[in-house]
Write a structure and sequence with these properties.
Elements lengths: L6 E6 L5 H12 L13 H5 L12 E8 L12 E2 L8 H18 L4 E4 L7 H7 L4 E2 L5 E2 L7 E8 L18 H5 L17 H7 L13 E3 L3 H4 L19 H4 L3 H5 L3 H7 L9 H11 L2
Parallel strand pairs: 3-8
Antiparallel strand pairs: 1-2, 2-7, 4-7, 5-6
Bound molecules: iron/sulfur cluster (2 copies).
The site of one iron/sulfur cluster has 12 residues, from α6 and α7.
């Protein structure tokens, strides 16, 4: 019962290893998470997912990767949304798809919680442990043979499963994303500074954008470090209809956004992850591009 997932892996819930903890502590300590203050919260749970269930100690993590790639069919003269944001909100879509798995676990008397960017959980770290893929220098989870255009969803449960072998692959000497990132957000060792990343600035960051920042036709997010990655060459169109681009989104011009009213924004982005940035944020981004 894969529910459209392109990879599924199991791993044992336990404490995050020391090196990964140290890297994360440094990331937060150096302020590279920018204004995403929530990343510095619940550090104890982030270190140990056994504490994620309310009524029991978690024993396993089931990590699922769902493909979302679609060719970029942004219409001529229109602004560009990151590939993940052109269709329906993955949080809702994946929660619905995995509901039957948690129902089955509940029928067997187990607790289970679905985490999709919604809990203090090191999702990519656990995806590696569960053998689903490896983390590239671009900080994306790369599923061998599929690429990085995947959403991760993790089920944390007190049921026990046979664990998979961790994924031991890596980027080798590639380095394309380091060289091509427009903001210089990716260090040669894969260290990441959100404050220099166009995705962070256009989606998460609420203030005025840095003076002189050039967004070009990007309005929401950035896919450059995925587009240049050799693991995404020949990426296949997702089979999940909900992730296909919405015509109303890929045909938006900058002028249309600048003139948009709140009700129009609500109608165009109903059920879309773009709602996160709100109309003010989208207009701010539209003013910066071109
Ligand atoms: S999303 Fe864009 S700006 Fe951010 S790290 Fe990737 S290439 Fe750089
Ligand atoms: S572009 Fe190259 S270095 Fe960057 S994530 Fe992909 S394989 Fe790794």
């Amino acid at each position: 019962m894969r529910q459209g997932a392109c990879a599924v892996g199991f791993t044992v819930a336990c404490e995050v290893d020391g090196e990964a903890q140290e890297l994360y502590t440094r990331f937060i300590g150096e302020g590279r998470h920018g204004a995403m203050g929530y990343l510095a919260n619940h550090i104890d749970i982030r270190r140990d997912p056994r504490r994620l269930l309310e009524t029991a100690e978690a024993r396993s993590l089931i990590v699922c990767a769902f493909p979302y790639f679609t060719p970029d069919d942004t219409r001529e003269g229109c602004v560009r949304f990151a590939a993940y944001a052109r269709g329906s909100d993955y949080h809702t879509v994946l929660r619905e798809r995995l509901g039957c798995v948690t129902d089955m676990l509940a029928q067997e008397g187990y607790s289970a919680r679905i985490c999709i960017d919604s809990a203090p959980l090191r999702e990519r770290y656990w995806a590696v442990k569960a053998g689903v893929g490896f983390v590239g220098l671009n900080s994306q989870l790369i599923v061998p043979g599929v690429g990085s255009y995947v959403f991760l969803a993790t089920i944390v449960t007190d049921a026990v499963f046979e664990p998979d072998e961790p994924c031991r692959l890596g980027c080798g000497a590639c380095g394309r994303c380091v060289a091509q990132c427009p903001g210089g957000a990716i260090g040669p060792d894969g260290s990441f500074d959100a404050r220099r990343c166009l995705s962070y600035l256009t989606i998460e960051y609420r203030g005025e954008l840095p003076e002189g920042l050039k967004l070009g036709d990007c309005i929401y997010g950035c896919d450059i470090c995925q587009q240049c990655c050799p693991h995404n060459r020949g990426a296949e169109m997702t089979g999940i209809e909900d992730f296909r681009p919405r015509e109303a989104v890929v045909s938006l011009t900058r002028e249309r956004i600048l003139d948009m009213t709140r009700p129009e924004f609500g109608a165009v982005f109903a059920g879309s992850a773009v709602k996160r940035v709100r109309l003010d944020g989208l207009k701010r981004n539209a003013r910066q591009g071109g």
